[in-house]
Amino acid sequence: MAGTDETAVAAADDALYVLTAVLLTPAQFPSVLGDDYPEACSALGLAPLADGYGLVLGQDGAGARWTVATDDVSLVAVAIASWDCGMEYDLSPDERSVVAALPGWPLAVAVAAPGVPAPHDPDPDPADGPPLCPPDTSNWGPAQRRLGADEIALQWAVWREQIDDAEFVTPDGSAGDAEGERGEETSPGRGGIRRVLAEARAYVDTPPPLGRVRSSFATGEARTLRADGPGWSLVARTDDIAFVLLDDAPGEVLPVGRGPELPGLLEALDRMAVRPI
């Protein structure tokens, strides 16, 4: 998604040529920044406002990277929806709605504004603090694990068709241990799956930080669930299976079968999850 080269907002005493924008709300935030909404806000030095923010990423006239945080969330949401539909939208938040103008970008941006120098961090200013920069995703870790979960949520059908349901069933026809997860007893992810399911169940009784459990639209009457915790991410559909990713299992995607308890757990998580407005 990108604005036109004429789209500009005021920031840091200069025009900002908008390249892209994202939402930072309890129900929808760049998960690469954190396991929950307050953690993602903290990565940018922002207070976790109940209604969230819109983040506008662009360059000033000298080519420097800037991120403008606005509390006019609906304006940014409309701009993103318009760009996603291939329509132009002049994203120009009112100066009164600008909460902060932060040096740098918290996310990787592959485009640049025409007619200005190449993207670079602005000159250091002690009042601004260090420039924002995208999390390191070159090695497996929390940021890469969350990006993997994002991809599964976006491409659910592709991942789901790779799984044979028969692999979740024991010879006697019952679901396997630990919710019917696939893998031998020596699988490095097996104990991790049990821990993830136990921690997810604990969320039902003791709500976690806002945004740790999110629910979004899926096909039919189902919902896509996303839950995160220390060292793990879970992606599921309320009418189907789940996938687990672990910091301790680099690059592995661990499927979890329905079993006798997963359906109830997913329903309970969906009831407590935050949802896009």
TrEMBL record:
Residues 116-143, 170-191 are annotated as: Disordered. It comes from the Bacteria. This is Integral membrane protein. It comes from Streptomyces cadmiisoli. The lineage of its organism: Bacteria, Bacillati, Actinomycetota, Actinomycetes, Kitasatosporales.
